[in-house]
UniProtKB/TrEMBL annotation:
Protein name listed in UniProt: DNA-3-methyladenine glycosylase I
Keywords for the protein's UniProt record, in alphabetical order: Metal-binding, Zinc
Superkingdom of the organism of origin: Bacteria
Single GO MF annotation: DNA-3-methyladenine glycosylase activity
UniProt xrefs under PANTHER family: DNA-3-METHYLADENINE GLYCOSYLASE 1, DNA-3-METHYLADENINE GLYCOSYLASE I
Length: 201
């Protein structure tokens, strides 16, 4: 067994972090590291990574559909119009993480996302500027020079809950980097998909 990998019941090798939980395995196999260009999903992931702060991703993953219902499918133009009544509605929603600061941050970030689209044409065009050079990860790191740079720029633009660790987790999940370890069955699938991706296409 390659260090950092785990062997599933289906005899497939996977990154150690997905363990044996069915939700995590499905997320690891089908989503994590697959390149994403859809602006709603990119905005969603940035927001959910912010909500994850202090929690496990599995907690957020299990609540993701409720988050989508509460935040209008993460249509940032709609979320940007949320007001105080929506904040109170979301604080009363037991299906999500009821954290006022993170809820208000999501609404603020939605307005900032609109500004990003106005300037760059899409969120995808902006975030994919920070795609690093291809590399073979020997271990999964918490940050990178690119995530630090994106975090700094987003904060300058008024975003919140977008620290370097949060941004790097976003980059990993959305395929800006392929951090599936060598020997993980999903690595080649993600790399093949990444070669076909052209932001703005």
């Amino acid at each position: 067994m390659v260090p950092g990998l785990t062997l599933g019941e289906d005899k497939k090798q996977r990154c150690w972090w997905c363990g044996s939980t069915s939700e995590y395995v499905a997320y690891h196999d089908n989503e994590w590291g697959m390149p994403m260009l859809d602006d709603h999903r990119l905005f969603e992931k940035l927001c959910l990574e912010g909500f994850q702060s202090g929690l496990s991703w599995l907690t957020i993953l299990r609540k993701r559909e409720d988050f989508r219902k509460g935040f209008a499918g993460f249509d940032f133009r709609k979320v940007a119009r949320f007001g105080p009544a929506d904040v109170e509605r979301l604080l009363a929603d037991a299906g999500i993480v009821r954290h006022r600061g993170k809820i208000e941050s999501t609404i603020n970030n939605a307005a900032r996302a609109c500004e990003l689209v106005d300037e760059f044409g899409s969120i995808a065009s902006y975030v994919w500027k920070y795609e690093p050079k291809r590399r073979m990860p020997e271990s999964i790191l918490p940050t990178s020079p690119e995530s630090i740079a994106m975090s700094k720029d987003l904060k300058k633009r008024g975003w919140s809950f977008v620290g370097p660790t949060t941004v790097y987790a976003f980059m990993q999940a959305m395929g800006l980097v392929n951090d599936h370890l060598e020997g993980c069955h999903a690595r080649k699938l993600c790399e093949s998909a990444r070669r076909k991706v052209k932001p703005g296409a």
